Amino acid sequence: MTNATIEDVAKACGLSRATVSRVINGEPNVKPLTIEKVKKAIAELGYHPNIHAQALSGGGAKTVGIMLPRIWRSYYSSLLSSIEEVAAQEGYYALIMAKDYLKNAERIFDEGRVDGFIFRNMDHVEEHERLFLRLRKRNVPFVLIGNPLRDYPAITIDNVGGGRAVAKHFAMHGFRKIVYLGGPSDNVDSNDRYFGFRIGFEESGMNPEGILRINGDYSTKSGYNAISEIMLTQKPDAIFAANDRMALGAILYLHKNGVCVPQDIAIAGFDDSYFAKYITPALTTVRQPFREMGTAAMKQLCSMLKGSSANPGKIILPAKFIVRASCSCPYSHDDSLDVLDAVENSE
Amino acid sequence: MTNATIEDVAKACGLSRATVSRVINGEPNVKPLTIEKVKKAIAELGYHPNIHAQALSGGGAKTVGIMLPRIWRSYYSSLLSSIEEVAAQEGYYALIMAKDYLKNAERIFDEGRVDGFIFRNMDHVEEHERLFLRLRKRNVPFVLIGNPLRDYPAITIDNVGGGRAVAKHFAMHGFRKIVYLGGPSDNVDSNDRYFGFRIGFEESGMNPEGILRINGDYSTKSGYNAISEIMLTQKPDAIFAANDRMALGAILYLHKNGVCVPQDIAIAGFDDSYFAKYITPALTTVRQPFREMGTAAMKQLCSMLKGSSANPGKIILPAKFIVRASCSCPYSHDDSLDVLDAVENSE
DNA sequence: TTACATTATGAAACCACTCTCATTATGTAA
DNA sequence: TTACATAATGAGAGTGGTTTCATAATGTAA
Hints:
Chain A is α/β, with parallel strands linked by helices. The first copy, chain A, has helices at about 5-10, 15-25, 30-45, 50-60, 75-90, 100-110, 125-135, 160-175, 190-205, 220-230, 245-255, 290-305; strands at about 65, 95, 115-120, 140-145, 155, 180, 210-215, 240, 265-270, 285, 315, 320. The radius of gyration of chain A is 26 Å and the shape is elongated.
């Protein structure tokens, strides 16, 4: 019932462990006939090499740690599935970790559980900096997703470009009084989107100093609250939210208070979540290529694990600006049918 | 730079590996002073026991395989995060696997990578049956989520109860001609919801034979297509979809073709996805407690891993019927604000 | 003080592999 | 045939822990 060992295989074909090991690892200088015999025995015994023994004798765990923030977002599904897919192709396994990963990352590496990491780092920049510095010192391979820091390998999307595209579009519509509804103040994605928006606004001949920034925490509720606060004193032309959920929160508040979107106030979001095209009004937003991010990150990590020591730097994936109705452009819900064939993983 | 070993710790405090091992594992009969010394050395060296060595000498991998279908749904985020949370509490780690898990599950167990499994098994009942039978024979602990089979430990939601609640509500509204928009024909969830619906319909004094069933694949597009087909020959009073996405697909088709929802045709879905309360009309649906499912599954698995041999059978979690506008009940989008505080993980 | 139980520690085997090095078998050139 | 290179295989050490068993140190009762 218990699994066969390499010793069992060796005995079964009258050879030594060493020779069986050679066959398993495809080393040269083994007689073809011997290879035959060993493979037959392996098949008959249903033998699979014990990973711990392999790892212990220098092979590594063939596992990577996927470190995600405590607060899960549903688009992690796309991220995870693409990561796992690439990992499987390359003979690696994915260990996920969310709770307290800042505290535990180094330990699970020390324990030999993982050979490297992918971090979806969001906030708490300083803590991450400290961790990354230690890992770098110890030559632990890791890749960041979505929040580039220093010269660490990172996969990002073009937040600046996305923000800029929204700004130019807003400027084209003639919106002047803008509210930027950001994520947490130390969130790099949010800050980059803000930065890009300012640039784009300025490039369009508008004054970026008039942009009012208020921060939420990416939740629907925080978008609702932030806008309810702003509306006490302001009446902007348009709102650019750092993600779709906060944009939706804003819409909910405005609708509840009799403000028409987009006629009175236009809105754009970020992410192109699953629901974006189905709410009313359909949300103008910037699409994040989550699957591609996961794929790129895992490929990057694999090449580092296989010894490529060259620091690959950052990969910036394009973000696609999606125009729908919430910016006051013409759009019919029927339009969403055209893209119904697209993979439904985006959120 | 390379990690300290137990030997290093032993040397550092002039003791043997055995004694250090005792301290680490909290065994009795070690002098308090010795414990002190060892702990100090461990702290100074930053020592962490190597998991592979521990596993090799009988400890197990302290890892469980989380096996998810190839097609990822966004609610897996909730499932995974709760699973990981419980796992961390209990000193376990979560290895996720999606691609070809039917083929690979047994292998990764043989390799010693995992000590047990959680399966989110969906379709392909026969293949799963074969796998589970083999695992059972080999005494491999595993728990199923969402699709109970034979007497294997499983965490399910009350699909039958959910379907029944929808049926009773539909009957109360006086809907007679019903279309059931199911998932794949061998999908247990879908079949149970259908079954529950029939029961509820019958219990309400209606004739369940009039229910027309048509299957999609849970995607928005398939819901759209299925209803477009049905509408060529039928004009139902109401549609009950096996998930929210297909319900949305149906709504999209109906709107596009000038059919009013819910005035002309009422609709209910299943899942209570994030978007359900935000689309127009807000979707009447049945809420799945994904986080609770993950928690229950992992707790169950842990108790099995810790030796509890009693077969715990099935745990059926309640599903909550949520009335909104799409069944033609009065509902304002503002109502969704009341639940905005709820955790936003559900999808 | 002796006798014996109990506590505290170490030596070494064991887990299932890989890898080095030694040894034997085979092939080729002088 | 000898000499030597190369191919094929095995013995054994090493990987980092746990665990058994033996032994030394300490405690307690007669």
